[in-house]
Design brief:
The protein is α/β, with parallel strands linked by helices and 746 residues long. The protein folds into 5 domains: 117 residues, GIY-YIG endonuclease (3-Layer(aba) Sandwich); 67 residues, Arc Repressor Mutant, subunit A, CATH 1.10.10.10; 184 residues, P-loop containing nucleotide triphosphate hydrolases (Rossmann fold, 3-Layer(aba) Sandwich), CATH 3.40.50.300; 183 residues, Rossmann fold, CATH 3.40.50; 91 residues, Alpha-Beta Plaits (2-Layer Sandwich), CATH 3.30.70.600. The protein is 30% helix and 23% strand. The protein has 19 helices and 30 strands. The strands form 7 sheets. It has a 7-stranded parallel β-sheet, with helices on both faces. A hairpin with a 2-residue loop joins strand 28 and strand 29. Helix 1 crosses helix 2. It is globular. Bound molecules: adenosine-5'-diphosphate and zinc ion.
Length: 746
């Protein structure tokens, strides 16, 4: 099919519509209107951006509208990527247009345009590339007049460089606009506008490093990956290596191998791990050619990175969740670091899981996919047992460093936040001039305030949660909707003035540590202290350069950081994450504790850990403290099998929410009834649980109910959902979302 024959095209529109649309292409746009570009189309009385999927030979629709214009000259997606989008649309039962919109970088999409001013042949969109003036040597040999001395100096530099930006010239010569103007007038220099790519690395000086000599387990893992890379075949691996076992070194060398084969590499990491520390290691090893996609980038920076990748200027892409859509071609290897992390799952809109999609993309591109973790997801472990993932193990830390010794301290019946054992260890570590980390997965000062008169806790008027007391801010705050009241304040129920603090958060922990060790330099890292740009990095660098003794924080401090001087880790309230009514609570607790424990003793001095728990016998806590991962996975898999949860079943969750409680209840009941009917009609085996109030029954004023579907067979689940989509009627004031493979069950 050649482009000039295209008369009718199929267009996907980013709206919640389960279909695509046909448009006619007017004569003058025929050459341009090809798949991979966006088009502006009339839609009702609006003009919308649509995505051209391809041409159609005939359309049953009699009155087709004309497209208004074609918005791009470059192709935004390849045929392979479109296939990937289609797979996603089908699996997550999500409109294709919405999938494409999610995949493309923010800033490129426009909803409606008042005018049609975009010049054809230019990339148009919300954000334009930044352009900068470049000065090049001119063509005049003998100028009519001699320029000034300063201008001649500038001319020499331009000649030497062959072309240099105005910004660089000003750095060197100070203000020089008149001289540059004169040089161009005389034909001694000519100006060209060039696109500049904002460089997220620009402020980091990096020292190059060399590949390390691998220890035997690393070598076996690398050989397995490299062997499959050579074969150009899809090969999924689970790299299961304890904290500090050298997984990153394996990633780096496997990527090297892929690059040598002329292939490119995609690296997915949880947002929290995208620190200069990790990106610095990649830079040090590979130098340039790396693109980084993370949420700290402005839309413009992100779009720049995206275009660099699309144009083949980056061979390694490192990014959080959404980087799974990076427009990288010739992908040889995809790494998913910390593959167990919940943050790979998008929690709204297109609820995709980047970890799962990495496998799908790897299969389509015939790439090696390496899922790495010290605490793999329970489902990944089972996949390895069943042979769907090839297991590669790094059971020991590098250079034979021991795993830290862990003391489990029972806190039942005791008062106070810091146990005797932990305070002794802290004092000792401080005396030895070593560093410590104290972990408490709760921010704020007190967990909540309770009225001494009526015994009611302060709760959020919009959400069914208690308000957390933040002493520094002088506020009681809702962590879900940001509702706040001055604190301590008075009881909203009885106006009592005596409010008691219950439970401890990181702010209180910091306060108590200061009382315990008044001269120690203590840092706190949680979302209250890291909201400013760069504050996260500043805190980490103070730990790295030794200008802090103790780091207190939430789960933010648990992951990925490599502080060689940390020899003590304290965990306050190990069961903080067990209380959640979620079948993954034990798994999350085990993973989080193992990760925190793993922060100790990564350098030459062995580490020790004090874990405080109320229930020291809980299997997740005990297994983490005893470094008994095998025991944990075995017990957890037994529980999952008995209770019928993943990996032994597939799940889909319906969330039904609205402002009127009664309407939400009615809609939830009707939805469940319809699902039951369809299930009988289809004669399939799907368990329908609920409707039940969501654990967070009220959130931002909305009442929330959920229905959980469980099936042993994924196809059954899929058929039921597809049928439901065709038949469902939804009350207009109620929102229903369907989450395939849900992670957040709150
Ligand atoms: P992980 O990613 O498994 O936590 P890292 O790759 O960060 O482990 O390795 C931990 C530390 O050991 C790092 O400082 C790394 O540079 C170092 N390291 C890794 N592999 C080797 C090796 N083969 N020889 C010496 N040091 C190594
Ligand atoms: Zn709230």
């Amino acid at each position: 099919m050649t482009t000039h024959q295209v008369h009718i095209i199929e267009v996907a529109i980013p709206l919640y519509l389960d279909r695509t649309f046909h448009y006619r292409v007017p004569e003058h746009l025929r050459e341009q209107a090809i798949t991979g570009r966006r088009t502006l189309v009339p839609f009702g009385n609006r003009k919308l951006t649509g995505y051209i999927l391809g041409s159609v030979t005939e359309s049953s629709i009699a009155t087709l509208k004309d497209i208004i214009e074609v918005l791009d000259s470059e192709l935004l997606w390849t045929a392979g990527e479109l296939e990937f989008y289609r797979w996603i649309a089908s699996y997550y039962q999500h409109p294709l247009g919405e999938v494409v919109r999610t995949a493309l970088p923010a800033g490129i999409n426009i909803q409606t345009r008042k005018s049609t001013s975009g010049e054809p042949g230019q990339l148009t969109g919300g954000k334009s590339a930044r352009r900068e003036k470049f000065y090049l040597p001119g063509s005049a040999d003998t100028p009519s007049k001699q320029p000034s001395a300063k201008a001649r100096e500038i001319m020499a530099v331009i000649g030497e460089a062959g072309g240099i930006s105005g910004a660089d010239l000003r750095k060197r010569f100070g203000a020089c606009t008149p001289q540059l103007k004169r040089l161009t007038e005389l034909g001694l220099s000519r100006v060209e506008e060039r696109e500049v790519y904002r460089d997220p690395f620009k402020d980091c000086a990096v020292q190059r490093d060399q590949p390390r000599l691998l220890h035997s387990h690393q070598k076996a893992a690398l050989d397995a990956i490299a062997g499959r890379l050579d074969q150009n075949q899809f090969a999924p691996f689970l790299l299961y290596g304890v904290t500090g076992s050298g997984k990153t070194e394996v990633y780096l060398q496997a990527i090297s191998h892929a690059l040598e084969l002329g292939k490119n590499a995609l690296v997915l990491v949880p947002e929290i791990a995208l620190t200069p520390q990790l990106t610095g290691r990649f830079q040090a090893r590979f130098g340039g050619g790396i693109a980084i996609l993370h949420s700290g980038l402005s839309d413009g920076e992100r779009y720049d990175e995206w275009r660099r990748i699309r144009r083949g200027l980056a061979r390694i892409v490192i990014g959080a969740r959404s980087a799974v859509f990076a427009p990288l071609d010739k992908i040889g290897i995809i790494i998913v670091d910390e593959e167990h992390e919940g943050s790979f799952k998008q929690s709204d809109g297109l609820r995709y899981n980047a970890r799962d999609l990495a496998l799908v993309r790897g299969r389509m591109d015939q790439a090696a996919v390496v899922l790495g973790s010290a605490t793999p997801a329970v489902t990944s472990m089972q996949a390895a047992v069943e042979g769907r993932l090839t297991l590669l193990e790094l059971p020991e830390r590098v250079e034979g460093r021991p795993m830290p010794a862990v003391d489990l301290v029972a806190m039942k019946g005791t008062k106070g936040t810091i146990s005797e054992a932990l305070s002794l260890c802290l004092a000792e570590t401080y005396e030895q001039k070593r560093q410590a980390i104290v972990f408490l997965n709760r921010r704020g000062f007190a967990t909540f305030l309770v009225c001494a008169d009526c015994a009611k806790p302060l709760t959020c008027p919009n959400c069914s949660v208690t308000l957390t007391y933040h002493r520094q801010r002088g506020q009681s705050l809702c962590h879900y909707c940001d509702y706040s009241v001055p604190a301590p304040g008075t009881c909203p129920s009885c106006h009592g003035t005596t409010l008691t603090e219950l439970g401890a958060g990181t702010e209180k922990l910091e306060h108590e540590l200061k009382e315990l060790l008044p001269t120690a330099r203590i840092l706190r890292m949680d979302s209250d202290t890291t909201s400013g740009k760069g504050s996260h990095e500043r805190l980490l660098s103070r730990m790295n350069d030794g200008s802090a003794d103790i780091l207190v924080g939430t789960q933010m401090i648990a992951k990925g950081h490599d502080f060689p001087e940390v020899t003590l880790v304290g965990v306050v309230n190990a069961e903080a994450s067990l209380g959640m009514s979620d079948f993954r609570a034990a798994e999350r607790t085990f993973q989080l504790l193992s990760q925190v424990i793993g922060r100790a003793g990564r350098g030459e001095t062995p580490g020790r850990v004090v874990v405080q728990a109320i229930d020291t016998e809980h299997y997740a806590i005990k297994a983490a403290a005893e470094h008994d991962a095998a025991g944990f996975y075995q017990q957890e898999l037994e529980f999952r099998r008995e209770a019928g949860y993943p990996p032994f079943t597939f799940l889909a969750a319906f969330a039904i929410s609205g402002l009127a409680e009664q309407t939400v209840t009615e809609q939830a009941d009707a939805t469940a009834r319809l699902l039951m009917r369809l299930k009988t009609e289809l004669k399939i085996r799907v368990e329908i649980l609920g409707p039940a109030p969501s654990p967070l029954y009220r959130l931002r004023n909305r009442f929330r109910r959920q229905i959980l579907l469980k099936a042993v067979n994924r196809t059954d689940l899929h058929r039921l959902l597809a049928m439901w989509r065709q038949r469902a009627t939804v009350i207009s004031t109620v929102r229903i979302s369907v989450d395939i493979d849900p992670v957040d069950m709150m």
